[in-house]
Amino acid sequence: MSIEIDILNGDESWPMAEPLFNAVWPPELVKTLPWADIVFAHAELRVLVQNEADDVVCHVGIYRREVKWNGRKMRAGGIGGVLTRKDSRRKGYASVALNAAIQTLKDEGSTDFALLFCEPHNAPFYMGRGFKPFDGEIWCEQPQGRVRFEAIAPYVHELRRAPLRGTIDLGGLPW
Ligand SMILES: CC(C)(COP(=O)(O)OP(=O)(O)OC[C@H]1O[C@@H](n2cnc3c(N)ncnc32)[C@H](O)[C@@H]1OP(=O)(O)O)[C@@H](O)C(=O)NCCC(=O)NCCS
């Protein structure tokens, strides 16, 4: 079976990705998740995997952000919205899409580390793909102001240099 992988502008490709989000994260399920009440940023780029029927079966969002680690500027490459349609899992699609996202950030040359947030049951998947737990505090913006982000745990992937402890201020909405 052949698949197609594209990396597209985040806003323009949202209509292609939206049916997958609705299938994997319908509102009634999202309500039960630890991040239900969080306001998230929109992806700047999207890695989309399409099957032979041209259905989008896997998605990874990419976010670029100047963050502050212990008050010092660093460039983080956010990874978010990693999802594969239920009938298309365990075929390596998320791994391929994640690799494409990391490669994109690497190719840009200026990103210090990739940063994602995940629930405990997904941590082994990311740790098997080069991510390490960030054992510190994350702060971000929400509509009510600057808040500590604790709903889901942070994991980092070194590109040039990655902090493993301390405080990261996302300087905007989380992803
Ligand atoms: C987490 C998620 C994105 C993984 O997607 P996926 O496309 O199934 O991921 P992959 O196929 O790349 O890898 C999944 C597992 O299948 C295995 N796998 C990959 N190809 C395989 C194949 N051909 N045959 C059997 N197993 C395979 C991988 O090794 C991996 O197992 P491992 O982590 O023990 O190594 C998917 O389960 C999902 O959408 N979950 C719901 C949404 C969610 O929670 N997203 C994460 C938000 S942080």
Describe how the helices and strands are arranged:
Elements: E1 4-9, H1 10-24, H2 27-30, E2 45-50, E3 56-69, E4 72-84, H3 93-108, E5 113-118, H4 123-127, E6 132-133, E7 135-142, E8 145-148, E9 153-158, E10 165-169
Parallel strand pairs: 4-5, 7-10
Antiparallel strand pairs: 1-2, 2-3, 3-4, 3-10, 5-9, 6-9, 7-8
Bound molecules: coenzyme A (COA).
List descriptors.
Aminopeptidase; single chain; alpha+beta; binds coenzyme A; ten-stranded mixed β-sheet; 175 residues
Can you describe what's shown?
By secondary structure, the protein is an alpha+beta fold. The chain has one domain (4-169): Aminopeptidase (3-Layer(aba) Sandwich), CATH 3.40.630. Helices cover 23% and strands 40% of the residues. The chain contains 4 helices and 10 strands. The radius of gyration is 16 Å and the shape is globular. Bound molecules: coenzyme A (COA).
Describe the structure concisely.
With 175 residues, the protein is an alpha+beta fold. It has 4 helices and 10 strands, in the order E-H-H-E-E-E-H-E-H-E-E-E-E-E.
